[in-house]
Structure formats: C-alpha cells, structure tokens
C-alpha cells in the first residue's frame, strides 16, 4: 500500500491526536506512529508573551513541506506521514504545528520525524513574531533563527549533496 | 518582475510586494539586493546586512549567486523560524 501523505498549511486549530490516529486506522501494516506537536509557550527568554503571530509564504510553504515529506518517504519505509503547520495569531497553550510519521517499525518513524522537524525549522518559509504582554501597549519582535537548528538539519545531508 | 518581502524585510520596506523593472546588467540575486538597497532609505535599512537575507526564485530557495534571468517572482526574507 502506498504511503498515506497529508500536508496542511492553515490558520485553524487542529486535533493532533485525531490526525495521528488516521495513520493507523484500518491498517495492519503499521507498527509505529511517532508524533511531534509544537506548542506555543507562555514565555520567551523568561518574558511573558501574549501571542505568537506566524507569517508564511503562501504556496512556497506547502511545496517546501511536500517536497521534504516526499524525500522522507523515499529515505525511510514509511506507511504514512502528516505535517500540519498553522499561520496567523496563536496564543500560549495552542498547537502551532505537528509532524506524524508511521512505519512498520519504530526506527524509521523516529528518524523520519526528526528529519522532517529539522528541515521544517530551517527550510519551510515561516516566521514567528512574538507579541509581548506589556501593559496596554503591544510590543512585537521577530524570533531569530537559531544556529543549532542549522546544524541539526545539516546531519541529514547526504555526502553527494554536501559537495554541491 | 514581481518582488516579495516577508517578516522584518517586509516591515522595513513597508510593503509586501511590488513589480519592478530591473535594469540590464543586474544578473544575480546578490546584485539585485545591492540594486534594491540603493532605491531608498527603507530599502537600505532592509538590505543593511545582505548576508542574513535569504532569497527564493519562483518559490525555491536560491543562493546569492543564483542568476535571476527568467524569474517571475523573487522573494527576500530573514532566516526561517517556523516549526
């Protein structure tokens, strides 16, 4: 059976456990489902935040995620994969995004999920803006990219790609 | 050619997108950034440190030395922070 793939870029909230459940429902070839959910924290660098606003590049965000999910499905024997990423204003406690990968065995599901997360952080065109909870005035700032996200993504580069 | 800006690049320039006629002789993404930076204070501010600006041609990531010939849409943005 072909891998069940779903990529969604949306402003609406989603139900991560219900989404992940679709990867194994009615199938007997799935032995492992790994899920990761990114959640909006209530503080950033020790300061309370009111919300995160995620900006994205419509069109490019979907194709960038789709191409990495397709690559994951080539590199690991997946039975399915789901990536959902929200944009717009998200308040603390709400889910921002999820990755779920399914396979017959756990190693492939774990590795594919990590690969997708590392690539999403460095290649998917989304930007986070923090809204601070400072009295009545709304103070915003952009989250800076982290160098360790780049090094995490670099570990998945195949030797022939590194030479390019 | 359509140029799009995202996140703080968009905020600094003050618009999300525009159509520009790029002069002949501007061949690469890096040259386009230099040319844009000369268009006014807000552009100079946005492209103040071109090393940190990422670019995409027709919605695919490209390096600064990429050729812009034939591009329909070029986007400039800071390093991504999704996930």
TrEMBL record, chain A:
CDD domains: MoaE. SUPFAM superfamilies: Molybdopterin synthase subunit MoaE. It is an enzyme of class 2 (transferase). One of its GO terms (molecular function) is molybdopterin synthase activity. It catalyses: 2 [molybdopterin-synthase sulfur-carrier protein]-C-terminal-Gly-aminoethanethioate + cyclic pyranopterin phosphate + H2O = molybdopterin + 2 [molybdopterin-synthase sulfur-carrier protein]-C-terminal Gly-Gly + 2 H(+). Its EC number is 2.8.1.12. Pathway: Cofactor biosynthesis; molybdopterin biosynthesis. One of its GO terms (biological process) is Mo-molybdopterin cofactor biosynthetic process. The keyword Protein transport does not apply. Keywords: Molybdenum cofactor biosynthesis. PANTHER family: MOLYBDOPTERIN SYNTHASE RELATED (PTHR23404). Converts molybdopterin precursor Z into molybdopterin. This requires the incorporation of two sulfur atoms into precursor Z to generate a dithiolene group. The sulfur is provided by MoaD. Heterotetramer of 2 MoaD subunits and 2 MoaE subunits. Also stable as homodimer. The enzyme changes between these two forms during catalysis. Belongs to the MoaE family. This is Molybdopterin synthase catalytic subunit. It comes from Undibacter mobilis.
UniProtKB/TrEMBL annotation, chain B:
Pfam families: ThiS. It comes from the Bacteria. InterPro entries: Beta-grasp_dom_sf (IPR012675), Mopterin_synth/thiamin_S_b (IPR016155), ThiS/MoaD-like (IPR003749). SUPFAM superfamilies: MoaD/ThiS (SSF54285). Coiled coil: none annotated. This is Molybdopterin converting factor subunit 1. It comes from Undibacter mobilis.
